[in-house]
Amino acid sequence: MRLLIFFDLPMETSKNRRDYAVFHKFLIKNGFIMMQKSVYSKLVLNGVISLAERARVEKNLPPEGIVELLEITENQFSKIEYLVGTKQSAVEESMKRLIEV
Predict the structure, then answer these.
(1) CA–CA gap between residue 62 and residue 22 (Å, rounded)
(2) Contact 53, 30 (CB under 8 A)
(3) Distance in angstroms (rounded) separating the CA atoms of residues 98 and 46
(4) 41 and 3 Cβ atoms separated by less than 8 Å
(5) Cβ 44 vs Cβ 100: under 8 Å
């Protein structure tokens, strides 16, 4: 399974930018890989781990903005079509990249 996080955070004030930086660092520290500027993904083994990850994300949400989470299967994830640009090598599609905490 993959967890995909999509977010749109305000960047008008220094507090907004700080909140963005804290959230971004949280995602990276917890094994999410940037697919695009505001799209991150993480490979999880099963529904139990997915629930734990969701809880961690919910505890670390920024106070403002929009943050969305989507869970999809590896089969669905493998069907991503790159219409412009090339596939990022950092977004591995195998269980070899799975890091258990």
Answers:
(1) 8
(2) yes
(3) 12
(4) yes
(5) no
Tracing tokens 């490979």 back to the chain, one arrives at 43
CA 60 – CA 23 distance, rounded (Å):
7
> In a structure prediction context, what are the per-residue pLDDT tens digits for the chain, which is 101 residues long?
999 999 999 999 999 999 999 999 999 999 999 999 999 999 999 999 999 999 999 999 999 999 999 999 999 998 888 888 777 665 555 455 555 44
Q: Rounded distance, CA 1 to CA 50, Å?
A: 8
DSSP 28: H
Q: What are phi and psi of 18, to 5 degrees?
A: -65, -45
What is the identity of the amino acid at 28? I
- Between CA 46 and CA 59 the distance in angstroms is 20
Full-model pTM: 0.80
Three-class SS state of 66? strand
The widest CA-to-CA distance across the chain, in whole angstroms, is 41
